[in-house]
Specification:
Layout lengths: L2 E12 L2 E12 L3 E5 L6 H8 L7 E6 L5 E4 L11 H5 L5 H15 L5 H10 L3 H13 L14 H14 L4 E5 L7 H13 L3 E5 L3 H7 L2 E6 L2 E5 L3 H34 L10 H14 L22 E10 L2 E11 L4 E6 L5 H8 L7 E6 L5 E4 L12 H6 L4 E5 L2 E4 H7 L4 H4 L8 H13 L5 E5 L7 H13 L3 E5 L3 H7 L2 E5 L5 E4 L3 H24 L3 H7 L1 H4 L6 H29 L5 H29 L3
Parallel strand pairs: 3-7, 3-8, 5-6, 6-7, 12-18, 12-19, 14-17, 17-18
Antiparallel strand pairs: 1-2, 1-4, 8-9, 10-11, 10-13, 15-16, 19-20
């Protein structure tokens, strides 16, 4: 097992706030690790320390010599005057710089030194590298190479930064929320890419589908310490619950012992000096242990929704376009009482624009939204996170209301409400500028929900929220006695909270699907398969002359030789066997029963198997053309 990175007794604090204390763990070749913690526990700080962008109090961070490391920051930065192409190839890798030089020469039309560039690319075998880079850029929908970095949105910049990291082909890749600002198609591509790639990974993500399918190990920061789980996210959930239950049992046992010891300490106080010192010391240690409380991070969002009538909103002949890009066209829809709708689609198809039209922030070109009189919106928007950084957390919430209505005459103070949102009393009196990005998002969510809305409109609510908060938000939304529209790329989240989907497919093509996201993906795959079969059937019904006109190159090819026939037969046996081995390896790696060494061996083997499948499948396709 080759060690790539070793963290030894690492401690980091900000003043009195200790994020983690003397934590130790390592990353070896082939390990794909997900890092989990509540917001404010130091996930991003730890990644920045490892990447050398932030200092630490004590401990050691040791890399293997000459290790290629790539780091995708949560908020990436590049020189503003760089073009998108220059940023994508912004690297010290010599091959990457050479490809960037070639691309700039081709894009700019200056071919004076093209011959020299081509010769150097041949010598460095850079052509395969370039093809892979272009595939990555295409999958991330990066096409305008001349656009300046300073003109990009946050989402566009994140995709450029992700492309830059992947193109450099690091041996260890560190990712901070890689799926933020990616649409579902890009997320699924990245999921497959990282699963197949023979690289080591340390990543922070709130996307639980992504985490479950990419990672083979989970590290959790909890109570300033790290806990390691040799399995994927599903395995982690099971084992974490066992750990918490064991902790609670131990704490309860300590409490029982404490009661007996307390009785002993109180007896004959005048004889305290004669009591055994070791037993007195043991009492205070036991008292400290018994006072420990297992903070499960539960957030109570049991807030009353105000009354909502039968009329919610009606969209009547709504149309909107930006130049040649159509968002909606003659769109009609009647939203039902207590309906919970999810909106999905690729970036640029108009999801957020549709929400902004409903909220009155953007006017439609024609048509209108007729909204019921009893509707009280609670709107969580992507760009709505605006606080006075010099205000205290509790003052931000108190500026909205002095208490929260829980219904049935019950009220909750602002401090209690914030505590439910994991803002401890000392955190409540901190200034906003001291909060992490995820904590600010949680505070924003708090300000939306405490107004007692009866219609929640949530635009990408999962970005930057920790998994603990997401779990409870999902529970709240399932029980919410009101209406809901949520725009999200988080497949796990959508599966749990919505009744049906409005799928934006681009160019005003909108489909209402009666089910959650997983059901939609299954349906879509079936439809695509049916379309392929229909196209194949149509081709087979063509007259021979028409077939020849469509595929003249195939008719002119030579027939398969005896040797090629034998090779073709062998491939038809080998490929299913490799697929079966791949499935067995995936099942074993997900079981959580393997040792670390066994996991590394199987990780290396599955990468080899995938490469063999790809190679043999391509050869099978070549030979099948000769049939």
């Amino acid at each position: 097992m080759i060690s790539y990175l070793q963290i030894e007794k690492l401690t980091k604090s900000f003043g009195d706030l200790v994020l983690f204390e003397e934590i130790t763990f390592g990353i070896a070749q082939g390990q794909k690790i997900g890092l989990i913690a509540k917001n404010g526990s130091g996930k991003t700080t730890l990644l920045n320390i490892i990447a050398g962008k932030e200092g630490y109090d004590s401990g050691n961070v040791v890399f293997r010599n000459d290790l290629r490391v790539g780091y995708l920051e949560q908020m990436p930065h590049y020189p503003e005057e760089l073009t998108v192409l220059q940023a994508c190839f912004y690297s010290q890798n010599e091959t990457v710089r050479l490809i960037a030089e070639y691309e700039e020469a081709m894009a700019g039309g200056d071919h004076s030194n093209l011959e020299d560039i081509l010769m150097r690319m041949d010598n460095q075998k850079a052509w395969d590298y370039e093809q892979k880079a272009k595939q990555i850029l295409g999958q991330l929908k990066i096409h305008n190479f001349d656009q300046k970095i300073k003109t990009l949105s946050g989402g566009q910049l994140k995709r450029v930064a992700l492309a830059n990291v992947l193109i450099t082909e690091p041996e260890l890749i560190i990712l901070d929320e890689p799926t933020n600002h990616l649409d579902l198609e890009m997320t699924e591509w990245l999921e497959g890419y990282l699963s197949r790639a023979n690289i080591s990974i340390l990543m922070v993500t709130h996307d639980r589908f992504f985490l479950d399918r990419v990672c083979n190990e989970i590290i959790e920061i909890d109570q300033r310490q790290v806990f390691q789980y040799k399995g994927n996210y599903s395995y982690y959930l099971e084992k974490r619950q066992e750990r918490i239950e064991a902790f609670n049992t131990e704490t309860e046992r300590a409490n029982n012992l404490l009661r007996k010891e307390l009785d002993w300490m109180r007896r004959q106080p005048q004889a305290r000096a004669t009591k055994a010192k070791y037993r007195i010391d043991a009492f205070y240690e036991l008292e400290k242990k018994a006072k420990q409380q297992r903070d499960t991070g539960n957030v109570s969002l049991d807030v009353k929704a105000s009354y909502i009538g039968s009329k919610i909103f009606e969209a009547e002949q709504v149309s909107k376009r930006f130049g040649d890009l159509k968002i909606v066209e003659d769109f009609n829809y009647v939203f039902a009482r207590y309906e919970k709708m999810g909106i999905v689609g690729n970036n640029g198809t108009g999801k957020s624009t549709f929400i902004k039209m409903l909220m009155g922030e953007v006017a439609p070109d024609s048509g209108h939204f007729d909204i019921g009189e009893t509707v009280r919106f609670g709107y969580y928007s992507q760009d709505g996170l605006q606080f006075d950084e010099q205000m205290k957390v509790i003052d931000v919430v108190q500026s909205i209301a002095e208490f929260v209505d829980l219904g049935d005459g019950k009220k909750m103070s602002v401090s209690q409400f914030l505590n439910y949102f994991l803002f401890t009393p000392d955190k409540q009196h901190n200034y906003v500028y001291k909060l992490s990005g995820g904590e600010k998002r949680r505070l924003y969510l708090c300000t939306v929900l405490m107004r007692n809305p009866n219609f929640l409109v949530l635009d990408e609510p999962t970005n930057d929220l920790d998994i603990v908060t997401l779990n409870v938000l999902e529970e709240y939304l399932r029980n919410f006695k009101g209406c809901l529209i949520v725009v999200s790329h988080d497949r796990y989240f959508m599966d749990k909270v919505v009744d049906h989907l409005m799928v934006f497919r681009g160019n005003a093509d909108i489909k209402d699907f009666p089910g959650n996201y997983s059901q939609y993906r299954d349906w879509k795959e079936v439809q695509e398969q049916l379309e392929r079969e229909a196209e194949n059937a149509r081709q087979t019904k063509l007259e021979p002359a028409d077939k020849k006109a469509l595929r003249p190159e195939k008719e002119s090819r030579k027939k398969m030789s005896f040797k090629e026939k034998k090779e073709f037969e062998v491939l038809e046996t080998e490929i299913p066997a490799l697929e079966a081995e791949k499935s067995a390896l995936e099942e074993a790696m997900s079981s959580g029963t393997l040792t670390n060494d066994e996991l590394l061996v199987k990780s290396a083997r599955i990468a080899e198997v995938i490469d063999e499948i790809d190679e043999k499948t391509m050869r099978w396709l070549e030979l099948s053309e000769l049939l």
